[in-house]
């Protein structure tokens, strides 16, 4: 029988529980738009009992067309960067925020492993986090991550964890300033 929780799982679970408390305490909802992280964010956010109180859902949009249709990313820029840039990650977050009509959203994109066809030697990724306040949605956090020595799944996990950690930091700052 497999082990129920690994050390990493416990760290991620602790992080998601902290996010749950922040989101519920502030009556905030969240959705995600994932490419590189390929469902890791959705799985993490849904891993805690009661997540439907704050987690509206997510989209895993791996191909160019779905990112345009579902998330309204700007097609010319996306085509020139193979859908991998900070702008695309931010647009994915904004698209998820609108699609799910939530307060917060995260978008992820990148390369989870080397891609010789795209001249990518080392995995890298971008994430963006947006927040809807009143009638305006704005980017509140963004980051470029490098995955030196990480395999595909480790890179996906790293990006999902980093995005959730950045969201927690943002929510804690929001609470301390309000």
From TrEMBL:
SUPFAM superfamilies assigned to the protein according to its UniProt record, in alphabetical order: CinA-like (SSF142433)
Domain CinA C-terminal: 15-168
InterPro entries: CinA-like_C, CinA_C
Protein name per UniProt: CinA family protein
Organism annotation: Methylomonas paludis
């Amino acid at each position: 029988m497999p082990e129920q929780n690994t050390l990493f799982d416990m760290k991620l679970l602790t992080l998601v529980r902290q996010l749950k408390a922040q989101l519920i305490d502030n009556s905030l909802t969240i959705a995600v738009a994932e490419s590189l992280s390929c469902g890791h964010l959705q799985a993490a956010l849904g891993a805690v009992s009661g997540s439907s109180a704050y987690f509206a859902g997510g989209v895993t949009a791996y191909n160019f067309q779905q990112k345009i249709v579902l998330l309204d990313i700007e097609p010319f820029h996306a085509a020139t960067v193979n859908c991998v840039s900070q702008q695309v990650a931010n647009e994915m977050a904004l698209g998820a925020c609108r699609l799910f009509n939530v307060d917060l959203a995260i978008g992820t994109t990148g390369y989870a492993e080397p891609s010789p066809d795209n001249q990518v030697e080392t995995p890298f990724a971008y994430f963006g986090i947006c927040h809807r306040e009143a009638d305006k949605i704005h980017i509140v956090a963004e980051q470029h991550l490098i995955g030196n020595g990480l395999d595909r799944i480790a890179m996906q996990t790293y990006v999902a964890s980093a995005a959730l950690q950045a969201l927690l930091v943002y929510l804690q700052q929001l609470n301390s300033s309000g």
